[in-house]
Amino acid sequence: MKTWITHKGTRITRILPGRSNVFMIETGGKRILVDTSAAFTRKMLHRRLRKTGVSTLDFLILTHTHFDHCGNAEYIRTLTGAKICVHPAEAEFLAKGSGPLPAGTVWLTRTLLRIPLPSGAAFFKTSPCKPDFLTENNRLPEGFPTNIGIIHTPGHSPGSLCVTVDNEIALTGDTLFGVFPGNCFPPFADDTKTLIKSWEILLQTDCRLFLPSHGMARPRKTLERSYKKYSRN
Questions:
Q1: For position 121, what pLDDT does the model report?
Q2: What's the gap between Cα 215 and its chain centre?
Q3: For residue range 35-85, what is the model confidence (pLDDT) as tens digits?
Q4: What 3-state DSSP class applies to 39?
Q5: Helix or strand (DSSP H, E) at 25
Q6: 102 and 175 in contact (C-beta within 8 Å)?
Q7: pLDDT tens digit string along 6-21?
Q8: Residue 121: inside a domain
Q9: Per the domain annotation, does 137 fall within a domain?
Q10: Around Cβ 52, how many Cβ atoms within 10 Å?
Q11: 42-52 and 73-80 are packed helices; what angle lies between their axes, rounded to 10 degrees?
Q12: How far apart are CA 161 and CA 16, in angstroms?
């Protein structure tokens, strides 16, 4: 499991790689999980958490409520006692266990989304889960570490969130991707213009490294380059 440590000693561990990255933040005696991946990764997620020796979590932050990010939310709460935090714009999707899929941003993904889904599309649904706290900019649950920030960064989805750690490293969900070399642009997003504005918000922080939910870490220079390119369009 790959680990990053900030200059202030906050530890970030990638608990689960692959289909969708899952990160755990450890700071000041608190443990925060960011996303849970899809339901079909449940056994692997459980094994990885057990390998770290973690049996309890304080909070679970969902960067958004697409199936590959919140598929194990209710399970994690039952397993660890974590309080689930999500943006108000997506609380209903989480509670219902389903929500709209994002739009494609390039020819290939737009074409894929035109393919009719199987009846019921159960693959894209999750267990209904009522959040414990609705979070957005500067509105955090009681007991939440003060060195961890939550920023509303819409564009990929209406309630997308990013999590900043010591204003040094940001966990970005799908606000940016780390799949394509030298680029941060996601293949799926509801509103690309809003997404680019959210990149600007991230660049207003002092974060030097960005950890997306899909792919590898991206340095600040890559986000700056992508912002400069796509903000012209």
A1: 53
A2: 12
A3: 999 999 999 999 999 999 989 999 999 999 999 999 999 999 999 999 999
A4: helix
A5: strand 22-27
A6: no
A7: 999 999 999 999 779 9
A8: no
A9: yes
A10: 13
A11: 30
A12: 19
Instruction: Specify which residues 25 forms β-bridges with.
Output: 12, 32
Asked if residue 122 belongs to a domain, the reply is no
For residues 152 and 137, give the distance between their C-alpha atoms in angstroms, rounded to a whole number: 6
Q: What angle do CA 129, 34, 145 make, to 5 degrees?
A: 105
Instruction: Kindly report each contact of residues 192-196 with a partner whose C-beta sits within 8 Å and lies 24 or more positions away, as own/partner.
Output: 192/105, 192/155, 192/230, 193/155, 194/154, 194/155, 195/154, 195/155, 195/156, 196/155, 196/227, 196/230, 196/231
pLDDT in tens, 121-134: 555 678 899 999 99
The answer to whether 133 and 85 are in contact (CB under 8 A) is: yes
Domain residue limits at 183 = 3-116+127-230
Distance (Å) of CA 2 to CA 68, 159, 204, 216: 20, 28, 27, 11
Q: Scanning the structure block, which residue is given the tokens 């609380």?
A: 91
Residues 6+ apart with CB under 8 A from 145: 27, 28, 30, 32
Q: What is the pLDDT of residue 117?
A: 57
Cβ atoms of residues 89 and 158 within 8 Å: yes
Domains held by the chain: number: 1
- Assign residue 13 the CATH number of its domain: 3.60.15.10
pLDDT at residue 119, rounded to an integer: 45
> Could you give the CA distance from residue 195 to residue 166 in angstroms, rounded to a whole number?
23
Has residue 188 been placed in a domain? Answer: yes
Report the C-alpha gap between 189 and 195 in whole angstroms. 8
